[in-house]
Amino acid sequence: MRFFQLMLFMMVLAASAVTLRAGTLAQFITPLGIILVELFDQDKPVTVNNFIRLTEAGAYQNSFIHRADPGFVIQGGGFTLSSNLVVGYVPNFGTVSNEYAVGTIYSNVFGTIAMAKVDGDPDSATSQWFFNLADNPYLNTANGGFTVFGRIIKGEEILRFFNNTSQYSIWTYNDGKGLVIPDIPYLSFAPHFVMTQINILNPEIRMPSADELCIDWITAAGMTNILERTPSLTEPDWQPVMSFCPDTAQVTTYTGSLKEVSAIYRIRVPVSP
């Protein structure tokens, strides 16, 4: 079993807390299953911050995958639904600068997520994202390069599903009022639209009082969430504090005491290969 660890290291010293994080995790919940994505916070800060800001603001609520090109990409983050009708566009905070060549350069290969943008304008990305269904080297040079800002660590089978057109239908949506969306993937065994609920799994630390510690995080749905503690990182002895496997994403809070001399906590999400 391969382990990816959603890590919150928190060292408690007197009345202060210091946090060190791995790449932020984003969770895409679809009718086909869960896609878990590690975001490249350090290398693509503007792009990742924009995506997190949109997610936490609820911009992606009731959004869906509106484009499916087998062997190329699936794309979402563009349109919203109400009562299974397309009602408008995902709100955004304006365009973000193209970060393809910023920091580590990540190629548009199978299993990566990148930002969509307008043809001929490298700095036109707003809210729309896409997953690469194949290795797409063309996207590394076209339009200034398409910024890859994360990679899948769970859910590759969902991308493979979209590479098989026999498992779903493609149709064009027209609301009769001028909103036309071509190539929407249509599922016969679930609500017609492939909905995408997106959550950011970053934990947060609160200290309600001088001797009380609270750790809040949105859980990874359908996977074991393990909170562990060790007195030192020099010779770590991780001991479980709590462990559970929620059916749905939920906000969980752990409350502990700061009366211990010191403690280091981490939240771990084991992921099978």
Topology record:
Elements: E1 8-13, E2 16-21, E3 25-30, E4 33-39, H1 45-56, E5 63-69, E6 73-82, E7 85-89, E8 112-115, E9 129-132, E10 148-154, H2 156-162, E11 169-174, E12 180-186, E13 194-195, E14 197-200, E15 204-209, E16 212-218, E17 225-230, E18 239-244, E19 251-257, E20 264-268
Antiparallel strand pairs: 1-2, 1-20, 3-4, 3-14, 4-10, 5-6, 5-13, 6-7, 6-9, 8-9, 8-10, 11-12, 15-16, 16-19, 17-18, 17-20
Describe the structure.
By secondary structure, this protein is mostly beta strands. The chain folds into 2 domains: about 10-25 and about 205-270, Sandwich (Immunoglobulin-like), CATH 2.60.40; about 25-200, Beta Barrel (Cyclophilin), CATH 2.40.100.10. It is built from 2 helices and 20 strands. Strands 3, 4, 5, 6, 7, 8, 9, 10, 13 and 14 form a 10-stranded antiparallel sheet that branches. It has a 5-stranded antiparallel sheet with strand order 2-1-20-17-18, with no helix packed on it. A hairpin with a 3-residue loop joins strand 5 (about 65-70) and strand 6 (about 75-80). It is globular, with a radius of gyration of 20 Å. Residues about 1-20 have low confidence and may be disordered.
